[in-house]
Amino acid sequence: MATVKKVPSSSDDRSRLSTHFNVPESSHANRWAQLWDAGDFLPWDRGGPNPALKDLLMEKRGLIGEYFVVKGDGTKRRKTALVPGCGRGYDVLLLASHGYDAYGLEVSERAVERCHEEKKNNGYKYIPDMHSDGAGKSTFLKGDFFASEWTDAVPDGKFDLIYDYTFLCALTPGMRPAWSLRMLQLLATEPPGHLICLEFPTYKDPSTGGPPFGLTPQTYLEHLSHPGERLPYDESGHVLAGSQCQPKSDSLERLDHWQPERTHEIGKGTDWVSIWRHR
């Protein structure tokens, strides 16, 4: 079985990734699949869910609500959660342990197989939260985040919670308008869903390329406030703050923004968490 790195990515790792993805943007999905198929170079794998998400689920219920919705007849419905680019599925299993019916999405069939292996081998470690009615379902899907076919497996095709960590930074800057628009489309409106972004890597100079591509909190703010729009950037790769006078009415608004006390080692002192919902 291939050894998976679980340490912060080195400059050699970043150089190797950059070379691997030095192809047209349309070929990037296949390049991710190639890495999963080979299985010997997965430098983004940290071996478990991010502690920042663990803490959020325990401490921010007042902001994101409970894991269930009370329907008109008084019965409960579990909320649905999505983790695009879910890797081995650690965060999906964590969300399920907190009562959500959680879905993980990957572009590679091999990645989905790895998720099922993680669930089979280590699912017992994800102990259901004491405040939930037991764990929700965990489902892993192969599909293109920007396509619609995979949503046929999801009730209503929308999600009450979406978690983005190391997904936006895996996309080229030119795909950010499509990313923000797709988040808007997939996030439930009634009751209002919540998008959680663990903003990473904010320590990386955007001009150095990727993946992972360097991001700033302003990148999230500008794109999610203007979903689908192409925004101007300066020569160093930073989005121009306030280039659009007002957020679009059909956009997402940021409810909270903070630096987590705990996160993976690579993001300590630089990671940010933001929570969003429809305006």
**Low-confidence blocks of residues:** 1-8
> What class do helices, strands and sheet pairing give?
alpha/beta
What series of H and E elements makes up the topology?
HHHHEEEHEHEEHEHEE
Specify the number of helices.
8
The biggest beta sheet reads: 7 strands, mixed
Return the average pLDDT rounded to an integer. 91
Short description:
The protein is α/β, with parallel strands linked by helices.
Helices and strands in order:
Layout: H1 11-20, H2 28-38, H3 51-59, H4 61-64, E1 68-70, E2 76-78, E3 80-84, H5 90-97, E4 101-106, H6 109-122, E5 138-142, E6 161-165, H7 176-186, E7 194-199, H8 217-225, E8 252-258, E9 272-278
Question: Descriptors for this entry?
Answer:
single chain; 279 residues; alpha/beta; 27% helix
Task: Describe the protein in words.
The strands form two sheets. This protein has a seven-stranded mixed β-sheet, with helices on both faces. It has helices spanning 11-20, 28-38, 51-59, 61-64, 90-97, 109-122, 176-186, 217-225, and strands at 68-70, 76-78, 80-84, 101-106, 138-142, 161-165, 194-199, 252-258, 272-278. By secondary structure, the protein is an alpha/beta fold. It is globular, with a radius of gyration of 18 Å. Mean pLDDT is 91; it is low at 1-8. It is 27% helix and 17% strand. It contains eight helices and nine strands.
